[in-house]
From TrEMBL:
InterPro entries: 6-hairpin_glycosidase_sf, 6hp_glycosidase-like_sf, Glyco_hydro_88, PolySaccharide_Degr_Enz. One of its GO terms (biological process) is carbohydrate metabolic process. This is Glucuronyl hydrolase. Keywords: Hydrolase. Coiled coil: none annotated. It comes from the Bacteria. GO terms for molecular function: hydrolase activity. SUPFAM superfamilies: Six-hairpin glycosidases. Pfam families: Glyco_hydro_88.
Length: 498
């Protein structure tokens, strides 16, 4: 599928930055210094099942479905040799339940372990560490993956025709080290390896890339933005899939879908899709001016609505849009109560949920910081500034001595969430830059950045991220953690603000 047409709207990039066809890409992707490589594993045996009617795999990339109880056989395309090994694969269709993949070596019947994939969005990698003592058998017999789930699982399976999707295929990561470096992080971040489902996930990544370009002069980040957007735009039209893998064309899919348009507006304020976005917000607006899905006030709206609204309003010199952006923040003052920062307030029941959830705090505080930063010098509101300061002070009171925040910040036994931690720390630095926070707060953000280094994988992904919030509070309270590119977008924003 050809999707290289966003460039017609994108005046900041030259035609030479178009994606290169990848027919000739090698079977092994290596880092320049040889510290890691990805060895693709070919799907050589599988039951062919059709995608569910009305659903679609992103970008038309090749994918294979695994039926409940069924198995696929994978064979490395090159001989494996090294010190540390991980099996990786990425989800190709949205998941709203628990999928367990039992990994074994056929013929010899050696069980290697289980890949636990829960409530996952597409384009997210999952991994299983493999003991080096089994590599000789894997080279000879390959791997057998059996699905234990009531529903099918779809994973990307082959190289795409016109995009470098190797990081999403089944492969064995081979590395001399068990963790990665800052250099590995940026190499991964500034590539198609971080493309995500369109909406809050991809928007967070795009925002991170933009900040790397705008604040740190990373030209590769700007090129990567265009590569990402070219996957979603065709003929000037926006094509993407919802959280249910259903196709969308030039539509807004709720308030969480609109954060990517902050980056689109920065690149071309005249792109016609922006008018559609503003119209979508108007349809979601309540009589009091609040833009929400249904009747629930959520922290996400600070970042996914107020912030892109401010960017578009400033780009269009539209005072009403800019004022509306600040009003969206004010409507979310309701989430601050009893010295607790909540993710959601349910108007119909009057209940608050997800107290002091780190990523909810990140959406709130980062949304405040970015919106005020965008409007700095054009429009200011003392009430908004004071509420932001209150939120930061509250978050800092729960930061741990190692620089991170627990998934539920007030609970000492709650495992850290690297994504929420990065987002909160980024908000602190933006607040300092805007003149809204004292300089001495910088040390707390720097401590977070330093702590995040231990969570970089050998090939630059960020791990120990709390899973998408589609499995309820039980999943968030558990020790279940994943690799997630949206967390990388937040980490990139932290670095860019340093």
């Amino acid at each position: 599928m050809e999707r290289r047409t966003f460039v017609k709207w994108f005046s900041l990039c030259s035609a030479g930055m178009l994606m290169t066809p990848l027919h000739g890409y090698p079977l092994i992707e290596s880092k320049g210094d040889g510290s890691f490589k990805r060895v693709i594993t070919k799907v050589i045996s599988s039951d062919r099942i059709m995608p569910p009617e009305g659903k679609r795999v992103p970008f038309g990339w090749p994918a294979v479905g695994i039926a409940p109880g069924a198995s696929v056989i994978l064979k490395p395309e090159k001989k494996l040799a090294g010190k540390h090994f991980w099996l990786r694969l990425s989800v190709a269709m949205e998941i709203w339940d628990i999928n367990l993949l039992k990994v074994s070596i056929p013929e010899v019947g050696i069980c290697l372990g289980t890949m636990d994939i829960r409530f996952s969005s597409v384009l997210v990698p999952y991994e299983l560490k493999i003991d080096a003592k089994h590599i000789e058998h894997i080279n000879r017999y390959g791997l057998k993956i059996t699905l234990d789930s009531p529903s099918p699982l779809w994973v990307f399976s082959e190289k795409a025709r016109d995009a470098d999707n190797r990081a999403f295929l089944p492969y064995i990561l081979v590395s001399d080290e068990e963790s990665g470096t800052e250099e590995d992080f940026f190499q991964c971040m500034e590539s198609l390896n971080t493309v995500q489902a369109f909406g809050w996930r991809e928007g967070t990544v795009l925002d991170g890339l933009w900040q790397l370009y705008a604040q740190k002069g990373h030209n590769k980040a700007l090129e990567t933005i265009k590569q990402h957007l070219n996957l979603f735009f065709e003929g000037g039209n926006l094509h993407y899939e919802t959280g249910a893998s259903k196709p969308k064309l030039n539509e807004v899919d709720g308030i969480e879908s609109t954060i990517p348009f902050a980056t689109v507006a920065r690149l071309d304020a005249g792109h016609p899709i922006l008018k559609t976005v503003v119209e979508g917000w108007t349809k979601l607006k309540k009589s009091n001016g609040m833009i929400v899905d249904g009747s629930t006030i959520s922290a996400e709206g600070c970042y996914t609505v107020a912030y892109p609204m401010a960017v578009i309003g400033k780009a269009w010199n539209d005072k009403k849009l800019m004022k509306d952006a600040l009003e969206q923040l004010k409507h979310r003052f309701a989430l601050y109560t009893d010295n607790i920062l909540y993710l959601r307030y349910h108007n119909t029941s009057g209940k608050y949920t997800f107290p002091n959830w780190a990523r909810g705090a990140a959406w709130n505080l980062l949304g405040f910081a970015r919106t005020m930063s965008e409007l700095n010098g054009a429009m200011e509101d003392k009430e908004v500034i004071q509420k932001f300061q209150e939120g930061i002070k509250l978050a800092l009171s729960m930061q741990r001595s190692n620089g991170l925040w627990g998934c539920f910040m007030h609970k000492p036994d709650s495992l850290p969430d690297t994504s929420g931690s990065a987002g909160i720390a980024a908000a602190i630095l933006i607040g300092i830059r805007n003149g809204h926070l004292p300089e001495e707060y910088r040390q707390y953000a720097n401590n977070c950045w330093n702590a995040l280094q231990q969570y970089i994988t050998p090939d630059g992904f960020l791990k120990s991220v709390a899973q998408d919030n589609r499995g309820g509070i039980e999943v968030q309270e558990s020790d279940y953690r994943v690799i997630a590119q949206m967390g990388m977008g937040l980490m990139a924003q932290l670095y860019a603000a340093m």
